[in-house]
Amino acid sequence: MDADLWTRFAEVILSPVRRHHQYSNFSVTIDGEKADATIYMVARHWKATDGGASEYVQNGWYENSFGWIDGQWKITRLLHTYQWISGNGGLFDFSDPELVKVMGLVFAVENRVAR
C-alpha cells in the first residue's frame, strides 16, 4: 500500500481526537532482509462530547512484518490485535465521507496479506 494513503487514513481518522499511543515490550526477530515484531500498545483517544464518554482506549499489540526494500526497512504486513477496548467508540465519525473513501482504499481486498 502506498505510504501516502496510509498517512492520509491516519490523519483523517485521528485528527478529530486528541490521542496518546504508548508502545512497549518490543520483540523483534531479524532474518536477513526480513523481520517480524510484536509490539504491545495502549492507544488513548479523547474528544469533548455531549453524548457518552469522552475517552476511548484500545489495549493490545501489533504483529508486524518488515522487509529491507530499496535500502530502507518498510512495513510489509501490519496486524493490530485488540485484547480489550473501553470507552466511547463513537468519538470516531465513520459517516465522514472522506474517512469512508480512505478506509475503502486502505482496507481493500487487494491490500490484505495472507499469512
Question: Mind explaining what this structure looks like?
Answer:
The protein is an alpha+beta fold and 115 residues long. Helix content is 19%, strand content 50%. The protein contains two helices and four strands, in the order αββββα. Helix 1 (3-14) runs antiparallel to helix 2 (97-106). The longest helix is centred in the first third of the chain and has 12 residues, at 3-14. The protein is globular. The two termini are 17 Å apart.
Structural class: alpha+beta
What is the CA-atom radius of gyration, in angstroms? 16 Å
| Helix content class | 10-25%
Number of strands: 4
Outline the biggest β-sheet: 4 strands, antiparallel
The number of helices is: 2
Calculate the terminal CA-CA distance, rounded to whole Å: 17 Å
